[in-house]
Write a structure and sequence with these properties.
Shape: globular
Order of helices and strands: HHHHHHHHHHH
Number of helices: 11
Oligomer: single chain
Largest sheet: none
Distance between the termini: 49 Å
């Protein structure tokens, strides 16, 4: 009887810790977090609707052919987006080819190889790049990077790799290659920071067990660390790619804003969807040109959403493979 009385007292004591305010707080937290998620979806829907509404006159006049037409002539009110789509894809995915391996290497160095004395300062300096305004990076591209590329990098590439169409033509301090390098610099901070956090999150006992079984550090990274977080790495790279796709100011300053037909040479000038919007929207003289510029923004939204959906599918597939392996 005494034991039963003690158990009953314990249950009663536990029940008394749950007050009415606690239940109200749980319910309020549920509604607050659910409302925040619904608000985010509503904002995205409103953005898409507003952009679609602004582009509707151009959609009515040019239709889907706007996507592959290559003429942009404000004088005759004939507009097409092909050159800008090509410029956006070549600069963004070109930057991705450089930024992804560099960011992964930086993350691995800071999490696995760097001495503790320099790990913090180097990580902080790299992350500070994300705080540099786009216009400042663009100015640096104009006055420092562009002349350096024209005087040293592009002549070298043209001399030894000029037989490849990508590196043919005359060197220039403003062009597609300079824009790719600028976007690479802008992608690295956020991508490397996320990669570093992913590598640090891998349990230390798993890594130590791998080394204890005779694996070298490289084999441990390749066989344990990378497979454990590869889905997160895809998400981190996609996050950086999203910034590259939508970057306007810095690209506008260094790409040359050329309306030349599509060319394979990275030395020549070009244009992107975002840079054309940034440079022409305020000065567009006619309603149809303004609507065409908003149409460019709608295409950019579609490209960004499609890229993120593909990345999510890849992440989901990696997660399923990892769960199956376990």
């Amino acid at each position: 009887m005494e034991a039963g009385a003690v158990d009953e007292a314990r249950v009663t004591g536990l029940r008394r810790t749950r007050h009415l305010l606690d239940r109200i707080g749980d319910r309020a937290l549920l509604w607050l977090t659910g409302g925040a998620a619904a608000l985010a979806l509503l904002i995205i829907a409103l953005i898409v609707w507003k952009v679609f509404q602004g582009a509707w006159p151009a959609i009515q006049q040019f239709g889907i052919s706007f996507v592959w037409d290559n003429v942009w002539n404000p004088v005759t009110n004939v507009f097409g987006a092909r050159e800008f789509i090509y410029g956006t894809l070549i600069t963004s995915f070109g930057a991705l080819l450089f930024a992804a391996p560099l960011s992964i290497a930086i993350g691995l160095f800071l999490s696995e190889l760097a001495p503790p004395a320099i790990r913090g300062p180097i990580g902080s300096l790299i992350e500070m790049l994300a705080a540099v305004p786009s216009v400042v990076i663009g100015l640096w591209g104009i006055f420092v990077l562009g002349p350096f590329m024209r005087a040293h990098i592009e002549p070298f590439l043209g001399k030894y790799f000029g037989w490849i169409p990508l590196f043919s033509g005359d060197p220039s301090q403003s062009g597609v290659l300079v824009a790719i390098v600028v976007l690479t610099i802008m992608m690295i901070p956020i991508t490397s920071a996320v990669c570093r956090e992913l590598f640090v999150s891998v349990p230390a006992d798993i890594k130590e067990a791998s080394v204890g079984l005779g694996a070298t550090r490289w084999e441990m990274v390749r066989g344990v660390v990378m497979p454990s977080v590869r889905g997160g790495i895809v998400a981190a790279v996609t996050l950086g790619l999203g910034r590259a796709l939508g970057e306007a100011i810095a690209v506008t300053q260094v790409i040359g804003n050329s309306l030349q037909p599509i060319h394979l040479s990275l030395f020549g000038g070009g244009n992107t969807l975002a840079s054309q919007l940034a440079s022409s929207y305020q000065s567009s003289p006619t309603n149809i040109e303004t609507a065409s510029l908003v149409y460019l923004g709608l295409i950019l939204l579609v490209i960004t959403f499609t890229t993120n959906v593909i990345a999510q599918r890849i992440v989901h597939r990696f997660d399923k493979q990892l769960s199956g392996a376990r």
